[in-house]
Write a structure and sequence with these properties.
single chain; 258 residues; alpha/beta; 5-stranded mixed beta sheet; two-stranded antiparallel sheet
Length: 258
């Protein structure tokens, strides 16, 4: 900042000192510093009242600006100029303090709960964690997970008059009816279900080795190549059966015409 000020002073100018901090945010306001709301940033020589200024803080510290402070300036009369009143600054400070108290209190509550968590989670905590995890998965993964478990995707009326599948309600009912080991397994399935997605731009993209699904398969020594071969055989068989049905239907129609 001093390096930038020296050539301006050498040229006979008296640069102002400005801060990007709003007036209400500055804890200790220096009388020789202009804060945000007390000046307008303008172009050099844009009006007769234009003066050079040097930023004293933040990432722009040392940057030379040109500012106008004249409220009656004919060039900048349309520009709004606002500085919070002492009452407004006090109200804002009160709001900031209340927000900080609330945030820190919530952290203290969480830490107090952490200290009291048992070695084995109780049923309410387990259900809470499972359902919260499920809710964060997103709609597409909700649908995939319900289909993995074979839950009925019954549509119901929604608030805007249409109908849709309420996966959250379906899952909540199912989880509360599960045994404790099944809820634990459900949590694991939630962490794997997103890997069922195959990108539309490359449907043949293989499952990434670093994915949760691939790593879990490796841990449990699952022969993924064998499963892929079984799927390939089943689909090929269905395709042949479909062709046979189509051929039989065509022959039947020809016979009726004769």
């Amino acid at each position: 900042m001093q390096i930038r000020i020296k050539p301006l002073e050498a040229a006979g100018e008296k640069p102002l000192r400005v801060s990007h901090a709003p007036t209400w945010q500055a804890k200790q306001r220096n009388t020789d510093v202009l804060y945000e709301g007390q000046y307008r940033t303008v172009k050099k020589a844009e009006c007769p009242q234009t003066k050079p200024a040097v930023v004293i803080d933040g990432a722009d510290a040392g940057r030379v600006l040109h500012v106008c402070r004249d409220e009656q300036c004919k060039v900048h009369a349309r520009a709004t100029h606002y500085e919070a009143s002492p009452q407004e600054r006090a109200a804002r400070a009160k709001e900031v303090l209340a927000e900080r108290i609330e945030k820190l209190t919530r952290v203290r509550i969480l830490n107090a709960i952490r200290k009291k968590l048992p070695a084995t989670l109780s049923r309410p905590e387990l259900e809470m964690a499972a359902l919260d995890y499920f809710e964060r998965l997103g709609h597409d993964n909700h649908r995939r997970l319900c289909r993995v478990y074979g839950w009925e995707e019954k549509k119901s009326k929604n608030a805007w008059g249409g109908s849709s599948v309420d996966y959250k309600t379906i899952t909540e009912k199912a989880v509360r009816e599960m045994s404790t080991p099944d809820v634990q397994h459900f949590l694991v399935v939630c962490s794997l279900v997103s890997d069922l997605y195959c990108p539309g731009y490359n449907l043949r993209q293989p499952l990434a080795k670093a994915s949760n699904l691939a790593q879990a398969a490796s841990r449990y020594k699952i022969d993924t190549a064998k499963l892929a071969a079984q799927v390939r055989t089943e689909l090929a068989k269905k395709k042949e059966e479909g062709k046979a049905k189509t051929s039989s239907a065509t022959v039947g129609k020809s016979a009726k015409r004769k």
